[in-house]
Amino acid sequence: MKVLKFGGTSVGSADNIRKVREIVLQQKEDTIVVVSALGGVTDLILNAAKIASAGSGDFQPVLEEIKRRHKQTIADLFNGSGAMVYIAEELLDELEQILTGITLVGELTAKTLDRIAGIGERISSHLVAQVIPGAVRVDSAELIQTDSNFGKARVNFDATNRALKEQFCDFSGIAVMPGFIAKNAKGEFTTLGRGGSDYTAAIIAASLEVHSLEIWTDVDGFMTADPRIISKAYTIPELTYSEAMELSHFGAKVIYPPTILPVYQKGIPIRIKNTFKPKSEGTLILRTAKTPKERPIKGISSISGITLVTLQGIGMVGVTGISMRFFTALASVNVNVILISQASSENSISVAIGEQSVELAESAIREEFAKEIDAGLVSKIDIESDLSVVAIVGENMKQTTGIAGKLFSTMGKNGVNIIAIAQGASELNISWVVKTSELRKTLNVVHESFFLSENVELNVFLMGIGTVGSNLLQQLQKQQQKLLDEKHLKIKLAGVANTKKMAFKREGINLVSFREELDQSEIKSSLSGFINEMKSMNIYNSVFVDCTASEQVSTFYNEILGSNVSVVAANKVAASSAYDNYIGLKNMAKQKGVKFLFETNVGAGLPIINTLNDLVNSGDKVLKIEAVLSGTLNFIFNTISQETPLSETIKMAKDQGFSEPDPRVDLSGVDVARKILILARESGYPLEMEDIVINRFIPNEFFEGSLDDFWKNISQLDAGFEEKRKTLEAEDKKWRFVARFENGKANVGLQEVSSHHPFYDLEGSNNLVMYTTERYHESPMLIKGYGAGASVTAAGVFADLIRVSNI
Ligand SMILES: NC(=O)c1ccc[n+]([C@@H]2O[C@H](COP(=O)([O-])OP(=O)(O)OC[C@H]3O[C@@H](n4cnc5c(N)ncnc54)[C@H](O)[C@@H]3O)[C@@H](O)[C@H]2O)c1
Ligand SMILES: N[C@@H](CCO)C(=O)O
């Protein structure tokens, strides 16, 4: 035999009741069906009673709604005729008479309320019994006996078990019983309180020692987290009773914990099933549940609307009875305490309570500790609102080390501040308090790290979609699926901006149609607006990607890193800004547990900075760096010829995406100076830009006017360059713009190299770096390849993103 309980939504309409019938008829054994009232009916009855008790109020509209709900369902199921019509009418008349009585006396006692509160179940049980062929209705109120604590009556288990056993000793078939209602020894109606129908089902299941209790509801069972916030939350297949109780205490209102006590004591398994998806497995609750070793956490629960009340003062240290008085004061005004936290210093006690109880709690505590407050022994009662309590639950936590470590480091890395923590010695639950504004991020982060560790999400906020930025998006689009399939990395473009517009989408902007999304966006581009929106979206694992060349953008890195968002910069301005700023950004990243990466600042996609870091971190010392670091200049000097003059080569470098947005930055040597400065710093030398000697090969006046002036005037240099080029060619030499760092000093400038020089054969826009170090002494380490261009630079940014994701 088994017991099936159907909740209010499951019997909320004719269609739903037909679904219930189907489920019940599929059972292959004797079945007891316990039903709630039609969804919402009990609340309507209580409301009507409240209106009636006010004396002057008119309960009729509410009563009409109750009647309409039932009539409609009966009409749909029985074409509005048959015995059910009369049964419902009779019970609804009874309800009306009692409501009229309440109006007349203007008073509503708990006893009277219990006479009507269960009318919904009395009707629904008849309804369901009549719909299921062969089913009989059995009245729970005649079998479940309670005391006279109306509203939340206590069950007399001896009498109840006897009655139930007698009723069902030789029963076979299907019985339908109303949930929630019972009677006292005098035969007066009582009700079982919150979760009443579940409780009825559990009492019956335990008494008859059935092999299974099924709670049919409108969700798939216990989920790993609140599915309204975590779209990836999934049903937990198995839970122990204790885990289910812990999860139910917080947020997940699948069952009300005290109701499962009778079946828990008998070890009867409970299955939570979805009436609307009967094929899904649901959640099975048992004494010992299967838990995969790698999943010690079963679920995450949360409740919002929490206030933290803290009693603080040095006068509390070592004084016994303080906490007793504190909690007695709270209990005296019926304040439910959700979480307690006290540090061993005993200087303060904090409790998390529902925000609706704050005033009551505060005044009760003030009254209790009035003397201590006057004497200065209690310094303050601190009230912190708009908080949420989050808990991870799992019995296997007690056998696994590192759970708390993983939890709190994940929270820290994502910049979520933890306000209070509580963990019971049973290690079944770790609870902590966060600001409600951080709840979504908290749940995402924790869910990802404990349940979806096979899929890491990286949320990209991209600024600048010129040569490098747009190529990056193309590469991300091409690689997106592969990364997900093979590396379990989900990259989402959560925000993007050009100079005109910006767009944001938590679920990710389409990587093909991002331009259209930007065009359609109504948000005008603004740097601070972008950063603020990114911060307020507060998404975990976020990374800001700077593909502009803007100094202004770089001034925001500190704030961005400070908000626990990593920064990947193609933009070289920050890493070559004042040393204090550069080192400050690195420290900020370290402090916040995020990354500040800029591999493409030198040699585009070539692994120049990472290699240097590896050398230095493994104890090597950089003695000398010689390098060709400008893709643009190398391209110019490889392309310049009798037919293609200097001015033409500059345009070509620009068109091919090698040059800076303003090519004067390349031609002036500033770009190369920035690069050698960054390499010197990464080698451990605190150089400033002013320390780099720049030997220009183009006269200063060409850099003084506007960019337009530059383009107009630059051809004036063509003839002179051609003359020098011819001489150079005759001597079998080539121009290379070389950066040098040695003995703590750096310079950049044009050099004529002969054919035996390693830089001589450096083709196209290639770069070459030679590291002479203590280890690479006789023969320096060489890194050579494309040093500029859209695809290689975007690939370098992409590689930095992969580094941020730590896959
Ligand atoms: N092109 C390369 O080979 C290469 C190699 C390494 C590093 N980089 C660096 O990459 C960065 C981008 O270079 P690029 O070649 O793509 O230049 P680009 O001019 O093609 O693109 C830069 C884009 O940033 C946009 N932008 C500027 N300020 C902005 C703001 N405040 N908000 C939104 N958008 C803004 C510009 O409108 C432009 O579309 C530069 O810092 C450059 O030094 C480039
Ligand atoms: N403008 C740069 C881009 C790569 O940093 C160059 O030409 O080298």
TrEMBL record:
<dbReference type="Pfam" id="PF00742">
    <property type="entry name" value="Homoserine_dh"/>
</dbReference>
<dbReference type="InterPro" id="IPR011147">
    <property type="entry name" value="Bifunc_Aspkin/hSer_DH"/>
</dbReference>
<keyword id="KW-0418">Kinase</keyword>
<keyword id="KW-0479">Metal-binding</keyword>
<dbReference type="GO" id="GO:0004072">
    <property type="term" value="F:aspartate kinase activity"/>
</dbReference>
<dbReference type="GO" id="GO:0009090">
    <property type="term" value="P:homoserine biosynthetic process"/>
</dbReference>
<dbReference type="InterPro" id="IPR001048">
    <property type="entry name" value="Asp/Glu/Uridylate_kinase"/>
</dbReference>
<keyword id="KW-0808">Transferase</keyword>
<dbReference type="InterPro" id="IPR049638">
    <property type="entry name" value="AK-HD"/>
</dbReference>
<comment type="similarity">
    <text>In the C-terminal section; belongs to the homoserine dehydrogenase family.</text>
</comment>
<dbReference type="GO" id="GO:0046872">
    <property type="term" value="F:metal ion binding"/>
</dbReference>
<keyword id="KW-0028">Amino-acid biosynthesis</keyword>
<keyword id="KW-0560">Oxidoreductase</keyword>
<dbReference type="GO" id="GO:0005524">
    <property type="term" value="F:ATP binding"/>
</dbReference>
<keyword id="KW-0791">Threonine biosynthesis</keyword>
<dbReference type="InterPro" id="IPR001341">
    <property type="entry name" value="Asp_kinase"/>
</dbReference>
<comment type="similarity">
    <text>In the N-terminal section; belongs to the aspartokinase family.</text>
</comment>
<keyword id="KW-0486">Methionine biosynthesis</keyword>
<keyword id="KW-0547">Nucleotide-binding</keyword>
<dbReference type="InterPro" id="IPR042199">
    <property type="entry name" value="AsparK_Bifunc_asparK/hSer_DH"/>
</dbReference>
<keyword id="KW-0520">NAD</keyword>
<dbReference type="Pfam" id="PF03447">
    <property type="entry name" value="NAD_binding_3"/>
</dbReference>
<keyword id="KW-0511">Multifunctional enzyme</keyword>
<dbReference type="GO" id="GO:0009086">
    <property type="term" value="P:methionine biosynthetic process"/>
</dbReference>
<dbReference type="GO" id="GO:0004412">
    <property type="term" value="F:homoserine dehydrogenase activity"/>
</dbReference>
<keyword id="KW-0457">Lysine biosynthesis</keyword>
<dbReference type="InterPro" id="IPR036291">
    <property type="entry name" value="NAD(P)-bd_dom_sf"/>
</dbReference>
<feature type="domain" description="ACT">
    <location>
        <begin position="311"/>
        <end position="386"/>
    </location>
</feature>
<dbReference type="InterPro" id="IPR002912">
    <property type="entry name" value="ACT_dom"/>
</dbReference>
<dbReference type="InterPro" id="IPR001342">
    <property type="entry name" value="HDH_cat"/>
</dbReference>
<dbReference type="GO" id="GO:0009089">
    <property type="term" value="P:lysine biosynthetic process via diaminopimelate"/>
</dbReference>
<comment type="pathway">
    <text>Amino-acid biosynthesis; L-methionine biosynthesis via de novo pathway; L-homoserine from L-aspartate: step 3/3.</text>
</comment>
<dbReference type="Pfam" id="PF00696">
    <property type="entry name" value="AA_kinase"/>
</dbReference>
<keyword id="KW-0915">Sodium</keyword>
<dbReference type="InterPro" id="IPR036393">
    <property type="entry name" value="AceGlu_kinase-like_sf"/>
</dbReference>
<dbReference type="InterPro" id="IPR045865">
    <property type="entry name" value="ACT-like_dom_sf"/>
</dbReference>
<dbReference type="InterPro" id="IPR005106">
    <property type="entry name" value="Asp/hSer_DH_NAD-bd"/>
</dbReference>
<comment type="pathway">
    <text>Amino-acid biosynthesis; L-lysine biosynthesis via DAP pathway; (S)-tetrahydrodipicolinate from L-aspartate: step 1/4.</text>
</comment>
<dbReference type="Pfam" id="PF22468">
    <property type="entry name" value="ACT_9"/>
</dbReference>
<dbReference type="GO" id="GO:0050661">
    <property type="term" value="F:NADP binding"/>
</dbReference>
<dbReference type="GO" id="GO:0009088">
    <property type="term" value="P:threonine biosynthetic process"/>
</dbReference>
<comment type="function">
    <text>Bifunctional aspartate kinase and homoserine dehydrogenase that catalyzes the first and the third steps toward the synthesis of lysine, methionine and threonine from aspartate.</text>
</comment>
